Amino acid sequence: MDSLTQAALGAAVGGAVLGRRLGRKAVLIGAALGTLPDLDVVIDYGDAVANVTEHRGFSHSLFVLTELAALLTLLARRLAPARDITAGRWATFFGLCLLTHPLLDALTTYGTQIWWPLDVRPAAYPIVFIIDPLVTLPLLVGIGVALVTGNGQRAPARGLALAGAYLVLAFGAKQLVEARLEPVLAERGLEASPRLLQPTPFNILLWRATVVAGDDHHELLVGVLDGDTPPTVETYRRGAELEAAALETDRGRRLAWFAGPFLRYESREIDGRETLVATDLRLGFPGFHPFAFDLAIRDGEAWRPVATSRQLPAPSRGNREALTRLAGRILTPSPALCTSDFVAAGWLREAPEGC
To answer: Is 279 left (phi over 0), alpha (psi -120 to 50) or beta?
Structure first.
């Protein structure tokens, strides 16, 4: 989630746990702890692929944060003037303020390395967009009341309850959309294909499904309010003929570990050189994928890995129009919103009638 939401979450948790005893201090310390894991963003690994794939790494590890919470508990017991707060209460305070950060991040598409340093892919079960006002606002109101009144517990706890209820609703919405998606995929023989289902920006009523099958990837928009209207399926080329060349590079393998099969490959001319580019299809929206990286340069008949990868500029053509049309699509499935309206010519393989 965004840094504001994470700070608000830490503040609300801090108030709910120790607000009665520490008042405003519990909220402020909780906000600082809630922000702490995201400070890894200031680390420059000297390479664009490394910077993206290492983010939400060691600083989001449940192992690392549990050890940090234990250390802070020991320091608080020794140094804090509030001697009546038990070690268990301090451990709960520090542990929840820190650990809720990566757990919330794991509910977004990007994924979070909660099991670092184990060699497993980032955990991701997306039920909420990286910015969602209905998660953030209850937390902000709760901590705002606490800071104004000095009563650090009751209002933050209520804000947490409302934000938690919204996440439960998001989980339920995802189950409903999954059920509507299944027969459409089964009809095309895609029920066993890798899929990613995630909410579109700022809501949990409209969901984007991305399904990968060989050289193709399929895009669908499925709404909670769609009723019996089946989703349309748009099929795009994935550039799988370049996948083997990409996986021969260290950065290509790293991206495959990070994004799984949800990568598109293409050859572009960049700075006068034929360049192999990989794009993460999970993040953004068709036509507006922000994470694309150069991996290799054509050298005769072979691809030579780049010395340092770059994150390529994201397209911005029509992004305001796309958001406006997405907002309208939330309430009604007709007329259909075609993702191909925003994708560069040449990638579309098959569009349904009306697109």
So the answer is: beta
pLDDT digits (tens, 9 = 90+) for 186-206: 999 999 999 999 999 999 999
SS3 3: helix
How far apart CA 254 and CA 209 sit, in angstroms, is 24
pLDDT band at residue 81 under the 50/70/90 scheme: confident
Query: Closest Cα to residue 251, out of 38, 54, 39?
Result: 54
Residue range 131-182, pLDDT digits in tens: 999 999 999 999 999 999 988 899 999 999 999 999 999 999 999 999 999 9
Determine the Cα–Cα distance for residues 125 and 13; give it in Å rounded to an integer.
Answer: 22
Angle between helices 24-35 and 3-22 (to 10 degrees): 150
Q: Is 225 in contact with 330 (CB distance < 8 Å)?
A: yes
Handedness of CA 159, 165, 168, 173 (dihedral sign): negative
Which residue is listed with tokens 């497993």? 120
Measured between alpha carbons, how far is 292 from 58 in angstroms, rounded to an integer? 23
Burial class (CB in 10 A: 0-12, 13-18, 19+), 44: exposed
The model's pTM: 0.93
Tell me if 24 sits within 8 A of 142, measured CB to CB. Answer: no
- Find the DSSP H helices in the chain: 3-22, 24-35, 48-54, 62-79, 87-105, 133-149, 154-187, 243-247, 250-259, 319-331
Give the mean pLDDT of the chain.
Answer: 94
